[in-house]
Amino acid sequence: MFAMTNVDGPTSTFRDHLRSLCEKADRLAAHTAARRMTEEVREMVSDIHHLVKVCEREWSKAVEIFEAEIRELRLENEMLKAKGSLHESVFEDSDDGIVITTKAGNFLAVNQGFVHLVGCRTKQEVLAGKIQDFYANPRQRVQMRRKVDRSGVATNFELKLRRIDGSEVDTLHTINVRLDRDGRVSGYQGIMRDITEQKLARKALQEARDELQIRVQERTAELAEANARLKAEIAERARAQEALILSEERIRAIFEAATECIFIKNRSLKYTLVNPYMANLLEMPASDIIGRVDEELFGHEAGQHLRQVDQRVLAGETIEEEHTRPVKGLPTTFLDVRSPIRDSKGQIIGICGISRNITDRNRIFSLNEGMADEYLSPAMRASLARASVAANSDLTVLIEGESGSGKDYLARYIHNNSRRSGGPFYAINCAAITEGLAESELFGHEAGAYTGAIRRKRGLVELAEGGTLLLNEIGELSPPIQAKLLTFLDTFSFTRVGGEKNVTVNVRIMAATNRDLSQAVSRGEFRRDLFFRLNVYRIRVPPLRERLADIPVLTRQIVGQLARELRLTAELDIRPEDMEKLMQYSWPGNVRELKNVLERSVMLSEGPSLRLDSLEPAEPNEIESTWGVGFPPSSSITSVIEKLRRHFIDLALQRTDGNKCAAARILGISRYALKRQMKALKME
Question: Are 369-542 and 548-610 in the same CATH fold?
Fold first, then answer.
């Protein structure tokens, strides 16, 4: 009977329709009643009213539910609007490029990040093209699209984009598909990030890793090599340690078994270690020697000399010298070698010394104080008196005398009676060595200084450390050696031939000559400054013809020396008539000739009495002389001949005591010829 119409209005309108329907039903019922409405109509009306009430209640509930849903929809709509605004802000403000395209590649939307990524100025400039226009490698884009179509998404896909200016940029793509209502792919949306700097950084990082890997490999190889070297070094050190132990055992054996004094001193010059030989020589336990100084062991005088030597060793020198010092009250001569001991830093911390007892070494014949007192001749006594004065000082002494007169023995006498008597005495005949070897003989040379110089050689100046050096026939030295000798006498330091290090020595120089050096200076053959440097204290040794009264003393000394050398048991003597012969002879060869005559007599005599039958008297003023020259000569033949002429003229003048007429007769020339020769040779 009643039909419900669609209600499009709000809930209040729907209710108004229900009320209107009820009112129409009531009017119909009243109208029907007026027309003899039946009971069925009334029941129908009552049912309609009941139905309307039920529908009203149900509708009220439905309205309440609808209104709640409306409120939720409004809230959701507001949230969607807020999210849409947020997404729009993120879309536009993102630094990454964001695009939405159709399936064909047409742009639907792009953000400003993509515009900047492809180098365009506006979005319209981008939207006018297609996405495939901006890919540098289409094949890679097709591979990415296939992956997206299969899985719906492609992430971390690296592609190169071509910018509007033609340059390329590395990007990282993340692409998603867009589906329509039917679930079919309608397009794509993607995010593109510029990874150029990242790739550069990654490339640099990879290069750094590669370089690091190479360095690690190189370092590993180096460590392996170092490890191998270390193992080899450890093995070498082990062998060195074994060798060191063996060497120490050998050194200890040598140290204890050596027949020389070996000792070590500290910087305070106190003994810290001595070997058994030194302890036995001093007849003292080693423990009593350790901690003492030389003054306590050898007395003040010898100790002071050794202290001076040790101070030079502590300054860095290595010194070798002969020295005589009292041991158990007896003078004992030692050959000492003292060297500095250095620590690992090169600092000198002590002294190592080796002393060899050379007391029993044979010495050449020399005068002693007892024999000197026996000489009777006034000339020899005067010479010995001057020699005693020279012995009490370190003055440079010039000894003059004829060849064979005993100049070297007088020098030995001065040395033996000086405070240097404990040191060595060396003598060198300057006329017996060539000019090329003179410097090496005097001052030594370093290894390799010249051909044949295999090792370093110490010269006589250095060997005479602490003692005396006699330069015999000093007038024969060449000018270059004279200059070096002058420098040495001023500083007492020198350099070896071929060396660089300056060597300082403590030595006394004595010179001897059979020439008149003052005349040699005037002729330009000898340096004037060197002559003055040598001529500090002059001693003349008289020739034997001026001291004939000393012949018995000299004969006794020489014969005694020959008997000891030949180990004769019987005592030798000379008959008075033979001694008379000796005293009547003029002895042109001086003491050297006397020794030769006596030595020949000892060899020819059958018994203890010497025979002198071979001795022939000579003229009182007869003088024998020898003159030699080497070949090839060091100078021209003209120079050699001039020296020979000068030598003979000197001898002739000596025989005649300067009488030129007599000298000319001896030479077999006229007096005027002699004068011309002397003028030419600049001998006046």
Answer: no
